[in-house]
Amino acid sequence: MAVNNEWIEKYPFAKFKIRMQKKEREFLSAEELNIIRDYFSSIERLQIVKDLFVFSCYTGIAYCDVMALKSDQMVLGIDKNYWVTKRMKTNNSVRVPLLAPALAIIQKYKDHPRRNPEKLLPSISNQKLNMARHTFATTVTLNNGVPIETVSKILGHTRLATTQIYARVLDCKLSEDMRTLERKLEN
Known about the structure:
Elements: H1 30-38, H2 44-59, H3 63-68, E1 74-76, E2 82-85, E3 95-97, H4 100-108, H5 129-141, H6 148-155, H7 160-166, H8 171-186
Protein name: Site-specific integrase
Domain Tyr recombinase: 23-179
Keywords: DNA recombination
């Protein structure tokens, strides 16, 4: 506007470039996830936080979607197992097959007194559930051979680049993939 109104001769930020620093996202290793999954606390509040964190680790579902999860969002999938559909955060349709640890947590809280009758799980505040999504993307799925396109669809991302922010390919997965390629090339 200043250039157009001839208040200044040229745009002062013409040579300025914004550089985004890439931040490494945190996630749990398989061993750390197992330790947390198997942890028991006699303090109910901590047990609920742990369970919902683990639920997010095994589903990749965002905090707001975990807190809003209702029974009508669970459907039987083509594999005759339960799937979660629809994201509240973006109102997009999503299809997340429920792994056994996640389904067990839903069952555990079925009749829990701290659960809102309309919701499947008790409510907690959001503190570290983003790490749970990163753990799901990296440790639970990609590190076990699930294609990034599938992970992206489960996380409800519309762009693969968004999924790449959440997920990292670990060195052990790179090594395993290269050994598989090497065996194929030898044959």
